[in-house]
Amino acid sequence: MIKSTVAELSLALAAGDISSVELTQAYLNRIAQYNGELNAFITVCEESALEQAKAADVARAKGDTSSLLGIPLAHKDIFCTEGITTTCGSRMLGNFVSPYNATVVERFSDAGVVMLGKTNMDEFAMGSSNETSFFGAVKNPWNTACVPGGSSGGSAAAVAADLCAMATGTDTGGSIRQPAAFCGITGFKPSYGRVSRWGMIAFASSLDQAGPICKSAEDAALMLNVMAGLDSKDSTSIDKPVEDYTATLNDSLQGLRIGVPKQHFAEGLSSEVEQAIRDALAEYEKMGAIIKEVDLPNSHLSVPAYYVIAPAEASANLSRYDGVRYGYRCENPVDLEDMYKRTRSEGFGEEVKRRIMIGTYALSAGFYDAYYRKAQKIRRLIKVDFSNAFKEVDVIIGPTSPHTAFKLGSKSDPVSMYLEDIYTIAVNLAGLPAISIPAGSANGLPIGMHIVAGDFEEAKVLNVAHQFQKHTDWHRNKPSAMAKEA
Amino acid sequence: MALDKSEVAKIAHLARLHISESEAEEVSNRITDILALIDQMQSLDTEAIEPLAHPLEVIQRLRVDEVTEENQRERLQTLAPNSKDGLYLVPKVLE
Q1: A185 is a domain residue
Q2: From the candidates A240, A345, A385, which should be mutated to test the interface with B, based on the most B CB atoms within 10 A?
Q3: Where along chain B do its domains lie?
Q4: I need a surface site. Which of A8, A145, A263, A459 has the fewest CB within 10 A?
Q5: A377 in B contact zone (CB under 8 Å)
Q6: Hey, are the CB atoms on B91 and A191 less than 8 Å from each other?
Q7: Which mean pLDDT values do the consecutive 10-residue runs of chain B (95 residues) have?
């Protein structure tokens, strides 16, 4: 039962085949069995999860038929959860017990969802391998010598190993989609502003967006139905009606125009990944879609522009960690400046400090035009590239990552790690919705396919992803190392 | 652009980070590598391009100017490393 999709579990719970308490206990057992090996969870909330499950069963007995009622979920540890430690993968917040819930947490709780715990992540979501977490690296369930991707690596590994039915993630440059690709699951980043950022610890505020990490596009639609919507507490959340994202999943793809960016099939792409995506495109042609090459001429500048904008915004956002109001404070400071500097140097890890330094430099006097303003101009060119492409095609498809999951410890220099997100970053700069779904496998590791659509075309992305999953079984593949039943 | 050790010290101070003498060289090399990646931007002439600050170019929404939050000082100060009588305590600033 724990291997089922959310859609299947929803039916089983409604039919009375299983109770939420039984289901929750099964996942807790599975976490006890495998979390030592995977390190996917930072905090497990056994007692409160069982209480929530019991409440869900009572609500169901009283006639509540909410689609996610009683389904066990894990939250990335970037979402504030009242009364529960919220670390953001950092020593800085290692002792931080949030006094309030993020809107995303509140919405799932209102829908009767059971929270199993908080998942591991790269520190402050800065990383593409989950190795920057203060709480240790997460292991890939397909091969524990490999990384799960990042920054939402704990959520992706937990879903892939069936330690939860579904999880939340956040994506600033690929942090939902790249770990979803590496772990062989479905990860969806909605349009910027579609999901509230309130209570989601800030990294780069013009790029950050929350989304579902789950086992199918249908599950992503069910989750997004709960997550999406205007929030008066987030002034950047968008005032636009929320569709029922499940309503158009079964629309025909006859005549769908799929754009294939030539820049995403160039140097640096592994041949196995390229073949898997070409095979997937052939599958779409069988469904009646038309494949066209599209040009994204400025895509090579997306990583450079991102590494100005994201660190600049991060350096401003992370200035709040001063050792005064909450979080870590160094021992025996001699004066205020010593307290700030040692608190921040001891509380933050290497990668976070590096990005704060880059951002501070880019925003310092005399450099603004050469860096931040220049990067924002390139951001416009990237947005225009996509707008032009979407005049010709309905969706854009390519690889999520140039290769499959790499070995733990194999990428020690920051620039090679930054280039991991080469196909995903432009989408954040342009604010577009995009999903990664499993579309193949090489040497026992999953391959992710990236599907992008225009602003607020979440339903289109989910429809195109769901149709692929109806015709193929890649999303049903499970890591054999995690096959032991509790 | 390369960043030497004295510039690293200046930026670290602006960011209120402590970087020891022994770390400075490594930090300066890493940041120089990253700036080389970033400097690829300079290959493109963007003179006539307007900067894009928000991916959807929407205007910041405003709300009515009224009090919506309760004062939770006591509750929130329990999170502080050091507080007393409703105040946050830090090392002495004035003698």
Answers
A1: yes
A2: A345
A3: 5-43
A4: A145
A5: yes
A6: no
A7: 86 96 91 95 95 86 89 94 95 83
How far is residue A323 from each of residues A29, A77, A333, A344, B37, measured CA to CA in Å? 38, 20, 11, 8, 33
The beta-carbon neighbor of A361 closest among B11, B60, B92 is B11
> How many angstroms separate the Cα of A486 from the Cα of each of A32, A41, A162, A445, B19?
9, 18, 12, 24, 48
**Structural domain includes residue A125:** yes
* Domain interval for residue A152: 6-255+451-482
Tell me if A336 is assigned to some domain.
no
> Is A206's CB within 8 Å of B93's CB?
no
Number of domains, chain A: 1
Q: What is the CATH number of the domain that holds A235?
A: 3.90.1300.10
Q: What is the ipTM for the molecules in this complex?
A: 0.95
pLDDT recorded at residue A281: 98
Following DSSP, what letter does each residue of A432-477 receive, concatenated?
Answer: --EEEEEEEEETTEEEEEEEE-STT-HHHHHHHHHHHHHH--GGG-
Please confirm, yes or no, whether A175 is among the known catalytic residues: yes
> Does the distance separating the beta carbons of B18 and A358 come in below 8 Å?
no
The residue-averaged pLDDT of A129-143 equals 98
Q: Is the pTM of this model over 0.90?
A: yes
Residue A47 lies in a domain: yes
**Identity of residue A180:** A
